[in-house]
């Protein structure tokens, strides 16, 4: 027994020495020997769990704690919750922490991390605020960094005011988180400046470490550069953003979450262009472990973009499958339905697309505004303007907005439905009369309604609007003039009484120097001033008008061979064929008929070429079935010339001439069959 006790004591000494040196693998070997002597040793089991956690063997450590749960009890609550957190069993980790009998500081630290992963930012913020207030150790800066990250997440993902935090920006992590919070608030220039400050802090702090290489610095700066590119993208500087995104991708950072977000943003810039590059980048969003690095909204956006990419690459079935799956996962989100509708429109199924939109708007009225706008757009694309107007008027959220009223009035005017346009004005004016009476938007609508009614001859209906405007500003002469013009058709007495309010002609006279106005820069059509009197040109007597100089008319030129003394032909204006003395064209001698008969033969030369008429040649009898040969080609019908060349090849024609000459000379045939040409 004494020897066994000495052995255990030496093993504990070995465990202590290895723990101080950080050699946890060797410490595990010594602990295994100790547990071999006493398997229920609580201290040895606890030390074994700690060594396994330090080596990253979280699953094995969790198995040990579950196996000896009765022996260990609540001594390893923190280690169990931490292992579950590192194994991405966040819900289980939360239950373990909440079941702990006592909430220690390290449990609170872990509790804050778990709440952050669960996106429960309000509770997480209160936990870190309490920790910063009630603890003073070397980890205070890390807690402030985590608190700044919580504030930035609230600003970005919940669109809520982050509140004012008096946190120092002494490190690049704090500067980066402050920039993320500014992005959520829409303050992009300030956020970009803050990111530049974070980059400078990062370079300075890492340059102090001699073991850090330039590659390590660039890898650490990748997240800052990616966020800079995102701001550029939001500002419309897509080319600069794309260049910076590609630089981050080339660095191949170890953070799979950073790679996935950067690749997704490149895909959004490419849209329906450069789809092959997008298909390469989308593989980076499927890396293992991405789902644990990004928040729910980021993962959702990536999945939506995958469905859109399938549509852009004409993968219709895959697009429908992915959008249907996304709709099942997010039943109240309008984007999956809009992707399905876009795919249907690409397939020219507009009716089915409108039906799908109508079904979604009926089921989810809280998200129906954007859906109904899309429906109206589809109706307009099909030429159904009235249906589009009905859909737009059913959107309560935008019904009385100035832009919506303008669009509706324009569409009703296009359809020549003036009553419908006036009704839109009436409803909008009544809304502002009850909600914001006398506001600028209210008076602007009243004025536009009055102008519209006057434009389409509804002066009686415009009187009430004009009176309302004039009562708001009795010094508005333009409105008063319109009101008098409208009353002149309805009540002349009222028009006369209102005309008394018009200013007098003297007050309306404009004091303008006409000469100065005409001599000003840019004046056109200015009357010419009279020339000043000089010694050479004395002034004209009063009453003497200026005599305009008449330009001499040039005599017209006569045609050639024209005798001016001769009487012109009275029928010279008539065409030659219609004149009384026209006898038609003189018929000249008949030209020799060139090209008649066989091809290439002429009438004048036929007798010269006829060898039978010469004295030296004996008469020949015609061959049976070959026709007469007295005049070559005289009894042969010429072929039709449609769709054929105008000339035969020279070699064939010359060969045929030689054969004909030989036959007519009485030499018989050349051994070839003689057919009619």
Automatic annotation (TrEMBL):
Basic residues: bias regions: 548-558, 651-661
Biased composition (Basic and acidic residues): 560-581
Domain of life, source organism: Eukaryota
TPR repeats by residue range: 222-255
Low complexity: compositionally biased ranges: 612-631
Main location as per UniProt: cytoplasm
Biological process, per Gene Ontology: SRP-dependent cotranslational protein targeting to membrane
MF terms in GO: 7S RNA binding; ribosome binding
Residue stretches making up the Signal recognition particle SRP72 subunit RNA-binding domain: 527-584
Compartments, as annotated in UniProt: Cytoplasm; Endoplasmic reticulum
Keywords from the named record: Cytoplasm, Endoplasmic reticulum, Repeat, Ribonucleoprotein, Signal recognition particle, TPR repeat
Pfam families given in the database record: SNAP, SRP72, SRP_TPR_like
A cellular-component GO term for this protein: signal recognition particle, endoplasmic reticulum targeting
Disordered, as annotated region: 528-677
Family: Belongs to the SRP72 family.
Family annotation (PANTHER family): SIGNAL RECOGNITION PARTICLE 72 (PTHR14094), SIGNAL RECOGNITION PARTICLE SUBUNIT SRP72 (PTHR14094:SF9)
Role according to the record: Component of the signal recognition particle (SRP) complex, a ribonucleoprotein complex that mediates the cotranslational targeting of secretory and membrane proteins to the endoplasmic reticulum (ER).
Name under which the protein is recorded: Signal recognition particle subunit SRP72
Protein's organism: Takifugu flavidus
């Amino acid at each position: 027994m004494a020897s066994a006790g000495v052995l255990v004591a030496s093993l504990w000494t070995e465990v202590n020495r290895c723990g101080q040196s950080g050699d946890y693998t060797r410490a595990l070997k010594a602990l295994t020997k100790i547990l071999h002597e006493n398997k229920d040793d609580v201290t040895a089991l606890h030390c074994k769990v700690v060594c396994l956690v330090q080596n990253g063997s979280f699953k094995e450590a969790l198995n040990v704690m579950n196996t000896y749960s009765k022996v260990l009890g609540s001594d390893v609550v923190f280690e169990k919750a931490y292992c579950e957190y590192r194994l991405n069993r966040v819900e289980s980790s939360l239950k373990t922490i909440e079941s702990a009998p006592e909430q220690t500081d390290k449990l609170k630290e872990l509790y804050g991390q778990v709440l952050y992963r669960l996106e429960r930012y309000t509770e997480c913020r209160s936990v870190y605020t309490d920790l910063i207030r009630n603890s003073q150790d070397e980890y205070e800066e890390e807690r402030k960094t985590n608190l700044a990250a919580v504030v930035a997440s609230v600003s970005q993902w919940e669109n809520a005011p982050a509140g004012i935090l008096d946190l120092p920006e002494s490190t690049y992590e704090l500067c980066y988180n402050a920039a993320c919070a500014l992005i959520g608030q829409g303050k992009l220039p300030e956020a970009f400046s803050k990111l530049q400050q974070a980059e400078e802090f990062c370079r300075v702090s890492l340059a102090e470490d001699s073991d850090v290489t330039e590659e390590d610095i660039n890898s650490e700066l990748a997240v800052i550069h990616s966020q800079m590119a995102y701001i550029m993208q939001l500002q419309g500087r897509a080319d600069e953003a794309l260049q910076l995104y590609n630089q981050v991708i080339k660095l191949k950072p170890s953070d799979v979450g950073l790679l996935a977000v950067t690749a997704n943003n490149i895909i959004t810039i490419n849209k329906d262009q450069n789809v092959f590059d997008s298909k390469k980048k989308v593989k980076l969003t499927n890396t293992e472990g991405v789902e644990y690095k990004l928040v729910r909204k980021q993962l959702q956006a990536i999945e939506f973009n995958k469905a859109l990419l399938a549509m852009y690459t004409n993968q219709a079935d895959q697009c429908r499958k992915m959008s249907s799956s996304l709709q099942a996962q997010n039943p109240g989100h309008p984007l999956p339905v809009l992707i399905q509708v876009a795919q249907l429109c690409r397939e020219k199924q507009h009716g089915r697309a409108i039906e799908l939109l109508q079904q979604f708007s009926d089921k989810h009225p809280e998200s129906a505004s954007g859906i109904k706008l899309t429906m109206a757009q589809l109706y307009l694309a099909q030429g159904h303007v009235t249906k589009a107007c009905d859909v737009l008027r059913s959107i309560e959220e935008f019904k009385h907005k100035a832009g919506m009223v303008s669009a509706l009035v324009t569409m009703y005017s296009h359809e020549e439905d003036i009553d419908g346009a006036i009704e839109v004005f009436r409803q909008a004016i009544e809304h502002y009369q009850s909600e914001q009476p006398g506001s600028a938007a209210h008076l602007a609508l009243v004025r536009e309604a009055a102008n519209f009614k006057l434009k389409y001859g509804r002066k009686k209906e415009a009187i009430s609007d004009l009176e309302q405007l004039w009562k708001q500003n009795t010094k508005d002469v333009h409105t008063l003039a319109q009101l008098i013009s409208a009353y002149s058709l309805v009540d002349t007495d009222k028009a006369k009484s209102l005309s008394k309010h018009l200013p007098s002609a003297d007050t309306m006279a404009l004091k303008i120097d006409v000469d100065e106005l005409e001599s000003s820069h840019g004046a056109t059509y200015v009357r010419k001033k009279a020339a000043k009197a000089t010694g050479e040109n004395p002034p004209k007597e009063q009453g003497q008008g200026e005599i305009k100089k008449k330009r001499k008319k040039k005599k017209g030129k006569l045609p050639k061979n024209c005798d001016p003394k001769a009487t012109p032909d009275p029928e010279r204006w008539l065409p030659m064929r219609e004149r009384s003395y026209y006898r038609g064209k003189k018929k000249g001698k008949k030209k020799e008929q060139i090209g008649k008969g066989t091809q290439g033969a002429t009438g004048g030369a036929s007798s010269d070429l006829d060898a039978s008429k010469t004295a030296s040649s004996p008469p020949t009898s015609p061959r049976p079935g070959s026709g007469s040969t007295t005049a070559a080609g005289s009894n042969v019908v010429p072929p039709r010339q449609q769709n054929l060349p105008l000339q035969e090849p020279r070699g064939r024609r010359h060969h045929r001439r030689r054969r004909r000459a030989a036959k007519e000379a009485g030499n018989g045939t050349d051994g070839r069959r003689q057919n009619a040409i």
